[in-house]
Amino acid sequence: MLILLRNNAGSAAISQARSIAKRLLSTSAGNTKTETSPATEHYDIIIGGGGLVGTTLAAALVNNVTLADKKVLLLEGAPPFKGFDPTGPYQNRVSAINRNSVELFKSINAWAHIEQARYKPVKQMQVWESNSDALIQFQHNNFASDVACIIENDLILDAVYSRVKELSANVEVLNRARIECVGLPGKTGAPHSQVKLQDGRIFTCDLLIGADGANSVVRKEMGVDVFSFNYDRMGLVATLDLNMEDDCDNSVAWQRFLPTGPVALLPLSTKQSSLVWSTTVPHAKELLAMDANAFADALNEAFCRQYPRVDLADKALQGLNALFGNSGAQHQRQYPPQVCGVQDGSRATFPLGFLHASSYVCNGAALVGDAAHRVHPLAGQGVNLGFGDVRHLVETLAAAAYAGFKLGDTQHLVKYERKCLLKNVPIMVGVHGLHTLYSTDFSPVVLMRSLGLQLTQNLPPIKNLFMKTAMG
């Protein structure tokens, strides 16, 4: 009897031990699964990529009354933005902001922040040829309005981030967030778009917006055709010191088309301007290697040097000006202020290229900014096209949400695409055409472009049309 009781007690103990061990193993397995497969978090909209366009889009979305209740996640690959010091030296990355972009900033209550810091209105712009006397000048009658505003990129970011922080209840910013891969409903069969970061975190959303630049991961997953090429040119930027009197107003933007590419001075303050010089790769490297004095001399020479002339173009311009009763373009031309120095460490270069996606949208995704299009900086339209995308996308999503449709519904997203294509394509083709026309000194081409430029200068309706297009 005692043996039987002992056997029963032993069996019960063994059974209890096994049960405890089984529970421990089950718990351990559950913990391991949680670590390797993190839970996903869902958002209404995820913006892949920050920068000027992506961050402005985040602010515009949550600032819109119809979209204010949407949960937005901004994935920014860079570290947290450190802010902008309006008393510090001028930075070398600036943008020529047109009227439509200014209105966008006003609509999200970011423009007052920029006004209180610093920006430079452009009252006039002069563009002229190096192989003839052809030129064109843009300004409003009696300089009543600005042609553009020159604003430092970090100041724009500072203004927009201030709005994002004020609206932080509905928008979350995740810094150092690198996208590893994305999944879209049309390809995965899942009901939502999905984003996986390089650190393993996974998010889902109703609409994924690619604002991740020319090498967009979102665009690649969408599978749209892309037309792109490099210009084999470099853009060189710098902050310049000018030799100007204290009572002079530095409010003119200057651009001259050289045989190697356009060179432009954009006003920053009374005695400083920003440089954007498009040139060949070897020449850009040479300019970077120069000391400050040699660089200033090379820049002054670029604006004033007499390049080989095309006699036929000069004679044709004389006849055209006589026909319109003008004494000659050379008597109207002004020259930019002398450059006397360059700010230390401000010279930098970047490659120039062209890119356009055949489609901006698909089920559950949309593209904005450089992820959809990239242009030559000669007309200052790149970031303005991106801000135009922001305006059209927010309008389209607000209309869709008000009508009760899903944010990622292609039926409504194509309306955004249609608006953008009608706006972007003509400008992109025009900018590329200008680059092509001014990349040669072949006499017939010089004749054609000189006559076209001077004819536009002499016909105010045509000139005003170009100016309105550039100004938005």
Structure notes:
With 472 residues, the chain is α+β, with helices and mostly antiparallel strands. It has one domain: FAD/NAD(P)-binding domain (3-Layer(bba) Sandwich), CATH 3.50.50.60. Helix content is 42%, strand content 26%. Helix 2 runs parallel beside helix 11, helix 10 runs parallel beside helix 13 and helix 11 runs antiparallel to helix 12. The N and C termini lie far apart (101 Å).
Number of domain units: 1
- The CATH superfamily bears the name FAD/NAD(P)-binding domain
- Largest sheet: number of strands, sense, barrel closure: 9 strands, mixed
Number of strands: 20
Number of helical runs?
Answer: 14
Looking at the overall shape, the CATH architecture is 3-Layer(bba) Sandwich
Summing up helix and strand content along with how strands pair, one would put the structural category as: alpha+beta
Fraction in helix: 40-55%
Q: What's the overall geometry?
A: globular
Please, what is the oligomeric state? single chain
Rg calculated over all Cα atoms: 29 Å
Pathway: Cofactor biosynthesis; ubiquinone biosynthesis
EC number: 1.14.15.45, 1.14.15.46
Subcellular location: Mitochondrion inner membrane
InterPro entries: FAD-bd, FAD/NAD-bd_sf, Ubi_Hdrlase_CS, UbiH/COQ6, UbiH/COQ6_monooxygenase, UbQ_mOase_COQ6
